Amino acid sequence: MKITYNWRKTAERTEKVYNYAINQNQINIYNKIKLLFAWGPVVGMYAILFMIYESIVIALLDIFWPS
Length: 67
Description:
The chain has three helices and no strands. It is mainly α. The protein is elongated.
């Protein structure tokens, strides 16, 4: 176990994950709504409404409790 997990290998794996995440395309709001609506007419609408609710909560938290 000690040979499998050393700091160099762990750092290399972490760097690969971070580089992969950075190179991913950013989804704009229109594409995100299309993806959510593709889940189905009922679940997609609930997902879109939850996304709107989540955005409002995050905006209010940023106003009243800024980081």
